[in-house]
């Protein structure tokens, strides 16, 4: 225990976890006769009398309590700590110790906003030599982006005790579950591969599902088109999406999808998305200044409507009055569209069916792919769903996904008959 009067504090996220840790440590002491002769186990602590040292177990409920003088702090499952309050209290009491030690033991979490992810990022920079700190020793075992999560080599990389405490049979069972369920995949990647999965447990599509619908668009000339416009707040992204439904000879409806984003020039680097490259590739328009230029959006929509057989443009009712008036004055069929469960549930479920059935073609559109992959869903008691982000301040944009769902909503889920079967009309 080092110093005389050592104080080892093991911090957990809640009282239940702290109790589990205490039980595990107590059983370890009881299983070792040498330790058991030197230690006394009490209700909430383990004491080494001849060193006047103690091991105590704390939870985040202790965050307001000061007066600790720890020589060692062990933070278990740091990712469940909502903030640094408890850790800061414990670390602040270590100043008089000659060799204080703080150990973080954790898997990755599902929220990149918090103290654990900040510490993770710092650990990577120290490991890679970007930060020089001889007092900080990072030890990271994790699958990397691009690794095959179902390959045994990846399992070994993320589990240094693979084959001993982590059995191959166990990993195979968990991997089988991960193949069948998005929720299970995220659990598998987070707990067993130590990957930060940013989309959270309610992510609507598994990695690769929407990408698999990236076939080139079929010709869209003269085909009925339905559009959606998800307007941003002043400094966020605005998404314009169009869909062209088409029924094949067997009565199966497929959809060709176009997406274009508008991003203020001065905020283009804020979200860590490659907007500038996407602008060069034709998927994004960067507008001058730090706020969205709705005139540029209007001109793009009008130009698109002139070139396509647009049956309607769905626009979020919020914050769209002026643009709606301008578009309607130019003859555009604007359809105000709500963002609640009543309006969004059916087309969101329809999007899921289209993706799983490979009945979309988006041409590999990268902004739309990113936004759909970011999308989570919220569900009400009646089973209705609507798209959402992981949290209100997240920079993981979903505007393109929302606009796509609005398109599907006004399309009615129907498509014109196959080419050649549509009656020809003459207007006199």
N- to C-terminal distance: 96 Å
Name the poorly predicted regions. Answer: 414-428
Name of the CATH class of the largest domain: Alpha Beta
Rg over alpha carbons: 28 Å
Just name the CATH architecture of the largest domain. Answer: 2-Layer Sandwich
Helix/strand order: EHHEEEEHEHHHHEEEHEHEHEHEHEEH
What fraction strand?
A: 15-25%
CATH topology of the largest domain, by name, is Nucleotidyltransferase, domain 5
What is the number of helices?
A: 13
Structural class: alpha/beta
Determine the fraction of residues in helical runs and give it as a percent range.
25-40%
How many discrete structural domains? 3
Q: What is the number of E strands?
A: 15
The description of the largest β-sheet is:
7 strands, mixed
**Average residue pLDDT:** 86
Shape: elongated
């Amino acid at each position: 225990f080092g110093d005389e009067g050592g104080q080892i504090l093991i911090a957990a996220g809640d009282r239940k976890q702290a109790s589990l840790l205490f039980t595990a440590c107590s059983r370890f002491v009881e299983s070792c006769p040498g330790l058991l002769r030197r230690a006394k186990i009490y209700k909430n602590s383990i004491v080494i009398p001849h060193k006047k040292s103690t091991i105590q177990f704390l939870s985040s409920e202790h965050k307001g309590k000061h007066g600790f003088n720890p020589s060692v702090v062990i933070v278990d499952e740091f990712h469940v700590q909502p903030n640094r309050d408890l850790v800061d209290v414990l670390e602040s009491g270590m100043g008089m110790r000659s060799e204080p030690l703080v150990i973080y033991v954790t898997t990755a979490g599902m929220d990149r906003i918090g103290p654990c992810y900040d510490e993770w990022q710092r650990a990577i920079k120290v490991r890679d030599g970007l930060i020089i700190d001889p007092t900080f020793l990072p030890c990271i075992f994790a699958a990397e982006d691009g690794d095959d999560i179902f390959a045994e080599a990846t399992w070994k990389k993320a589990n240094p005790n693979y084959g001993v405490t982590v059995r191959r049979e166990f990993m195979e069972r968990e991997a089988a579950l991960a193949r069948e369920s998005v929720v299970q995949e995220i659990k598998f990647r987070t707990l067993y591969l130590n990957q930060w999965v940013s989309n959270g447990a309610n992510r609507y599509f598994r990695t690769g599902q929407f990408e698999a619908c990236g076939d080139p668009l079929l010709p869209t000339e003269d085909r009925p088109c339905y559009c959606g416009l998800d307007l941003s707040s002043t400094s966020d992204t605005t998404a314009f999406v169009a869909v062209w439904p088409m029924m094949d000879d067997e009565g199966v409806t497929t959809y060709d999808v176009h997406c274009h984003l508008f991003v203020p020039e001065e905020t283009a680097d804020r979200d860590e998305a490659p907007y500038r490259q996407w602008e060069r590739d034709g998927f994004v328009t960067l507008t001058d200044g730090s706020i969205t230029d709705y005139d540029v959006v209007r001109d793009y929509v009008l130009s698109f409507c002139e070139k396509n057989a647009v049956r309607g443009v769905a626009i979020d009712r919020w914050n769209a009055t002026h643009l709606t008036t301008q578009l309607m004055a130019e003859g555009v069929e604007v359809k105000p569209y709500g963002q609640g469960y009543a309006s969004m549930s059916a087309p969101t479920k329809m999007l899921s069916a289209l993706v799983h059935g490979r009945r979309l073609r988006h041409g590999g559109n990268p902004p739309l792919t990113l936004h759909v992959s970011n999308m989570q869903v919220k569900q009400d008691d009646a089973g209705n769903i609507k798209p959402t982000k992981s949290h209100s301040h997240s920079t993981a944009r979903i505007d393109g996904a929302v606009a796509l769902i609005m398109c599907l909503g006004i399309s009615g889920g129907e498509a014109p008959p196959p080419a050649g079967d549509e009656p020809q009309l003459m207007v006199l």
